[in-house]
Amino acid sequence: IGMLQAYGLDIVVLGGLGLSAIALLVVAKNVISKYSMVADGRATWGEVGMHGAVGVVLLVIVIFLATQAATVLT
What we know:
Layout: H1 2-40, H2 45-73
Helix pairs in contact: 1-2
């Protein structure tokens, strides 16, 4: 039974890692779309920087929460 619990824990931690990867892709897509808007003249570089900064903060929070959840589960 202990081995099944360990596998369950690994699956949950892997799910958290997957959510972190999805968050990274969403942030990258958002920043790239803002960069495209700058190239078209519809946005400013400040907006790209702001989206990048907020995206980094969100990624740090998601990764922090995923690691905290992994330690709580163990």
